[in-house]
Write a structure and sequence with these properties.
The protein is of the alpha+beta class. It has three domains: 90 residues, Arc Repressor Mutant, subunit A; 87 residues; 94 residues, no CATH class. The strands form three sheets. A five-stranded antiparallel beta sheet has the order 6-5-4-3-7, with helices on one face. It is globular and about 70 Å long. The protein starts with a helix and ends with a helix.
């Protein structure tokens, strides 16, 4: 993240939600109020170089930033004479929500020591050899990365991967960061950026023929990082009422659809034998190992309805787990 990115981010945030920044002008943000909010954010972080460009907020700079915001975030900020700036859309798009979430997570990690009395964050296993900011820059500029990766059984059967790669995308999942990268020998490969990374270097040399990569399309039919080549299919999942609400707000997958809501949305007793407390969702994904782990995470609260072979896949693994506890 650069100081310029942060300034544009806060311009968008202030105009999108002015009340949070103390601006009560019926949804409008005059230039002077916007500048005042940016100055205050800078004053609150006066010793932090990441915030240094927030004080560079003249009218010409802000107008240039508004064009960048339109290009990057596909959000149009309008201006009404004598009133100020405003965002026409009432609902925040999913892509913009993702930008907000990722930036706030980054800022939480950036301020981790300063805010440790107020915020608890999950530990992740990012290797000390990897710095995400220059790596993101390498992705943008199509720079080559050189690495040595000693895999574990679970990801590649203890294989050591050494070579030069085009970095394509970073993805965080289950407290771990993954680099999606490509070269001719391995194709597209997911490297977990933990202690499996034994050597890592960003070269200033550009990839001669960079490939294009669309993360949404690539991960469209999976839950996590694992791509098995399995055929994706609609998987129907029954969900108990108390957890149904959770999965509506925190979907299993972006493809999730409601098949049927529970007839009894709220019950004080969790009688799992009562069919009226169960609703049904469906997701279109590969029924791979990561899907299995996701289902197990929800304990008694979910059960696979169909297809039958996926139901059998889950049942088989549950049987093997139960066998552990039958052993003496």
């Amino acid at each position: 993240m650069t100081p310029e990115f942060l300034r544009r981010y806060y311009i968008l945030r202030v105009i999108s939600n002015p009340k949070v920044y103390g601006i009560e002008k019926n949804g409008f943000v005059p230039m002077t109020d916007l500048q005042r909010a940016l100055h205050q954010l800078r004053a609150n972080n006066i010793d932090d170089p990441l915030y240094e460009k927030l004080s560079q907020n003249g009218q010409k700079t802000i107008k240039r930033d508004l064009e960048k915001i339109k290009s990057y975030y596909h959000t149009i900020i309008l201006h009404k004479r004598n009133y100020g700036y405003y965002v026409e859309e009432t609902d925040v798009s999913e892509s913009l929500k993702e930008v907000y979430e990722k930036t706030e997570i980054y800022l939480l990690h950036h301020h981790a020591h300063k805010w440790k009395s107020y915020v608890t964050t999950s530990r992740n296993s990012l290797s000390a050899q990897v710095d995400l900011v220059p790596l993101i820059h390498a992705i943008e500029q199509h720079f080559i990365v050189e690495l040595e990766y000693r895999g574990w059984y679970d990801d590649n059967g203890f294989q050591t991967v050494v070579g030069f790669f085009q970095p394509l995308h970073l993805k965080e999942i289950n407290k771990a960061w993954y680099l999606i990268a490509h070269n001719e020998q391995y194709g597209i490969y997911a490297f977990c950026l933990d202690d499996r990374i034994k050597r890592f270097k960003i070269n200033k040399q550009s990839v001669k023929q960079p490939i294009t990569f669309n993360a949404f399309k690539y991960f469209k039919n999976v839950i996590g990082i694992l791509k098995t080549g399995m055929q994706p299919e609609w998987i129907h999942v029954a969900v108990a009422n108390h957890h149904f609400k959770y999965l509506i707000n925190n979907p299993l997958h972006h493809s999730q659809q409601i098949v049927a809501a529970p007839k009894l949305a709220d019950t004080h007793d969790l009688d799992y034998s009562n069919p009226d407390i169960w609703g049904e969702l469906k997701v279109y994904i590969e029924p791979n190992y990561e899907f299995l782990m996701e289902i197990f995470k929800y304990n008694l609260w979910v059960k696979i309805v169909s297809p039958l072979h996926v139901k059998a896949f889950v049942k088989e693994h549950l049987g093997m787990m139960m066998a552990y506890y039958d052993q003496h």
